[in-house]
Structure formats: structure tokens, C-alpha cells
Amino acid sequence: QRASDYVALSVETLGVRLGDIPAVSERVGGDPANWRIREVGDGNLNLVFIVEGTQGAVVVKQALPYVRMVGESWRLPLYRAHYEYYALVRQARYAPGVAPEVFYFDKPQALIVMEYLYPHVILRRKLIKGERVAELGETLGRFCAQTAFRGSELSLPSPEKKADVGLFSGNVAIPAITESLVFTDPYYDAEMNHHTPELSAVVARLRGNVALKAKAQRMLMKFTANTETMLHGDLHSGSIMATDASVRIIDPEFSQYGPMAFDLGMAVANFLMAYFSQPAHRSADELAAYQRWILEVIAACLDSFDAEFQRLWQTERRGILFPQTLFEDQQHASDVACQALLDEIREDALAYCGIEMHRRVLSLAHNADFEEIIDTGLRARLETRNLLMGEALIVNAAAYTKTTALVALAETHN
Ligand code: ADP
Ligand code: MG
Ligand code: MG
Ligand code: MG
User: Whole-prediction pTM value?
Assistant: First the structure.
């Protein structure tokens, strides 16, 4: 076997294949033959192993040449692991301590060895269980602001940023998934769609809303054409791992250059879906307080994004955009320009948010918050609230740019 020949790892072969790589063996420790190896990939796409030895543990993630949740018939390039690696490295620089640390990367094998996050669990599970996480919204808002700002020409030297856009533009297959599954499929009878049967009337209403479809396509156009910063690209509550007091973000294999608003909008959408699904998961005595907490997380996420972005604007504006030479050096404040940009980001984030709320109920990949509701009548009632709020956000985003207005809109639909 040549080094360049890709072979998928297994629990049986992992120790032999990675046992003499110091970055792995020194962290795991002991005889590789005695490593405890579990495959834990619960995602839609990849192999993920937890490898434990006498010293510690690492996670090994390897891309598969097809879409795991669909099967070998849907081919997907291995190179997505390269972009995940590039993104993890950049996120560590832009927002230290949030993404898992990378210990080793093998490009031909499309595998990444990284920090084992423990005792973290997937945030979506905690939200379904009704558990709280300290500083959740603040951490996410700061992460989105730091990656948005520091990955853009507000911060980066222009040649470096343009070279990076070039690097990431080699990734075609992954953005194509988002372009169809997120932005397009919800609004027509796409082959891989599925939805709760009782939703037929509301689905017809959404597909009949021309203004909605036009806005969704305009947001897709911004998503494909606007390369202002490096995105995570898949920032849903299944890409967030948490304890009660620690928040980490994994799985940036959908990373691409795109609009600053995209990650923020997707994250907020996943909290709104958690919010609307709660009546199926909580007893009556816990419901109101827990839903209130989710709305507080959303508000904290949005407001922390703005506060951190403003802080970086004041202290780290070193790129070609809005240079000090045009403002502060001429005794002109630039806060108005920053606020105008933040207003635009907020409005676009709400539209992306609405689209994500639609696709998770109507397109291929649903989320457990709704999917685990067995009573389809109840599920459809809760999904309808989510779909109608999503519609309002897409068509009329500008009306909800104040955090209080967004929270009120959620309460109105609940
Ligand atoms: P996919 O791209 O296939 O969705 P993920 O990166 O989301 O794969 O990983 C799948 C699962 O593996 C996660 O839901 C999580 O349970 C686990 N996992 C992934 N990375 C880590 C990590 N660094 N530490 C602990 N668990 C992890
Ligand atoms: Mg994942
Ligand atoms: Mg469903
Ligand atoms: Mg993934």
C-alpha cells in the first residue's frame, strides 16, 4: 500500500496504522495493541474514533468517500477533510480555545487527530434534556464575531486573505450541498425531501410565497458570491459540544468563505428550533422557565456578537477596510460605519436563520429536537410554529433586527 492510497480506518486497524505516529502514540500512551478504540461517529458523513491508552485519549476523524447517511451511491470528495483541517487551524488563531486542538493531519488519508473533548456532550442532546450551559450564548456570539472579523479584510492583510479565498475555492462539493439542501430544496418537491405528513398545507403556503422564494435565492446568491470571511459553515447545535460550564465547537468541514452573517444565523436558528420543540420534551412545570432560558441564550449570542465585533473594530482594524487613515487619523469616529455593518449583518443573519429553520423540517437532514417527537400531530403543530416564524424572518428580517423584537416574535409564534 502506497502512502497515497486512501483506506478507511477501522477499530481493528487503527492501532497498527497510527501506533508509530509520535503525535498520537505519545498522547495516547502504552502498546497500541492495548488501545481502547470506539467508533462514535453519529454524524451524517464521517468516521470518528475515540482512542484511549495509558496516558490519555485522542479523537481520530476520517472522511469517507461517500455520504454516510445516504450510502455509497452518493459520492463525496475526501478533500473536505483538508478544509476541515485548514478551518480548525484558523479558528484556533481567530478564537483561541473553542475548536478542538489538532495534533496530526494526514492529507491522503483524509484524517485528523484532535483533542478529545470530555466530558463534553453534543449540545443538542442537552437542549432536548432541558439542561443549561453557562455563558452559552456569550461564547457562541464571541466565536462568531472573532472568526467573522479576524477572517476578513478588516483584519487580515489583503494578499493573505485573497490567497485563502483561493485555497478554499477548491472546495466545490461541500458548498453545493448547502446550496441545494439548505437554500433550494425546502421550496420545491426535491427528491430527497421529507416532512411530517400533517405539514402539507403549510408547505404549500411556503412554496406559494414568491417573495419568500425570491429572498431565499437572494440569500443564496450572497452565500455563494460574498467571500468576506471564513465561515464554520455548519454551526448547528450538533456541532457544539458542552459541559455545564464549557462550550466547544467541532466539525467545520463545511467551512468556506462566505457572508459574516451566515454562522450567526444558523446558530440562532438551532436555538429557535430547540425553543419551539420544548413543549414535547418538558413537563408543564419546567417548560416556561426553560424556554425563557433559550431565548436568553439567543439574545446573549446576538448581543455578544455585536459587542465583540465592536471591540475588535476599535482595537484590531488592520486590514484594507475602513482604515484609520480615513477615520480616526482625520479625527472622525468610525462607530457609525461599524454600526451600519452590524445592522446589515443582523438583518442577513435573521434571513439565514429563517432558511435554516425551514430546511431542518422540510429538506433531507432533520434535527432530533423535532424528529424525536413520536406523536406526529404534536410534532407538526410545533414544526408549524417554527416554519411560520422562519417565513416572517426571511420575508421581513428588517422588522426584527432589535434583539427584543426577535424575542417577541418567537413568543408570539410559541
Ligand atoms: P460529522 O462530520 O460526520 O458530523 P462530527 O465531527 O460532527 O462528524 O463528529 C461526530 C460525533 O463524534 C460528534 O457528534 C461527537 O459526538 C463526536 N466527536 C467529534 N469530535 C469530537 C471531539 N473532538 N471530542 C469528543 N467527541 C467528538
Ligand atoms: Mg457533525
Ligand atoms: Mg421531520
Ligand atoms: Mg460534519
Answer: 0.97
Output the furthest CA–CA distance in the chain (Å, rounded).
Answer: 67
Count of other CB atoms within 10 angstroms of residue 315: 8
**Cα of 359 to ligand 3 centre, how many Å?**
10
Among 51, 61, 76, residue to substitute to test ligand 1 (most atoms within 8 Å of Cβ) = 61
In this structure, are 339 and 325 located in the same domain? yes
State pLDDT tens for residues 334-385.
999 999 999 999 999 999 999 999 999 999 999 999 999 999 999 999 999 9
**What band does 2 get if pLDDT is binned at 50, 70 and 90?**
low
Q: Can you say whether residue 262 is alpha, beta or left, with left for phi > 0 and alpha for psi between -120 and 50 degrees?
A: alpha
Residues 357, 393 contacting (CB under 8 angstroms): yes
The strand pair at 240-242 and 121-122 is best described as antiparallel
Please tell me the distance between residue 191's alpha carbon and the centre of ligand 1 in angstroms. 28
From atom 4 of ligand 1, which residue's Cα is the shortest distance away?
43
Nearest CA to ligand 1 atom 8: 43
Check whether residue 129 and residue 96 sit in a common domain: no
ipTM confidence score: 0.97
Ligand 1 lining (C-beta closer than 6 Å): 40-46, 48, 59, 61, 100, 114-117, 122, 238, 250-251, 253
Predicted pLDDT of residue 71: 86
Q: Domain range for residue 164?
A: 121-413
- With the CA atoms of 12, 17, 19 and 20 taken in that order, what torsion angle do they form, in degrees rounded to the nearest 10? 160
Task: Return the SS3 of 181.
Answer: helix
Same domain, 105 and 239: no
Q: Which ligand is nearest to the CA of 61?
A: 1
Mutational test site, ligand 1, from 88, 250, 254, 270, max ligand atoms within 8 Å of CB:
250
pLDDT, tens only, 53-70: 999 999 999 999 998 888
- What CATH number is associated with residue 304? 3.90.1200.10
Q: Are 321 and 347 in contact (CB under 8 A)?
A: no
CA of 371 to the centre of ligand 3 (A): 5
